[in-house]
Amino acid sequence: MKDIEVAREKLISPQQLADRLSISRWTVYAWLQEGRIKSVKLGRLVRIPESEVERMVHEGTREAVGR
User: What averages of pLDDT result for each successive group of 10 residues across the chain (67 residues)?
Assistant: First the structure.
């Protein structure tokens, strides 16, 4: 059932995520390799679900508030 949820969700590229977070594309790729970001592979393409972006922003906000 989770596969269906991802299929209906908007997917973005690593470059789009980097632009949104004002970080380098290479940082996004490093996070993908470390498993900090969940992704979907479509052939050779890597795409990141919108929910993953929201999770990262929410967790980042919690960390900043907790400091």
Answer: 64 94 94 93 94 86 51
Closest CA to 3 of 36, 40, 32: 40
Q: Where are the domains of the chain?
A: 2-66
Per CATH, the number for 2-66 is: 1.10.10
| Predicted structure pTM score | 0.75
DSSP string across 5-64: HHHHS-EE-HHHHHHHHT--HHHHHHHHHHTSS--EEETTEEEEEHHHHHHHHHHHHHHH
Q: Distance between CA atoms of 19 and 38, rounded to whole angstroms?
A: 18
Query: Cα torsion for 21, 26, 28, 31, to the nearest 10°?
Result: -130
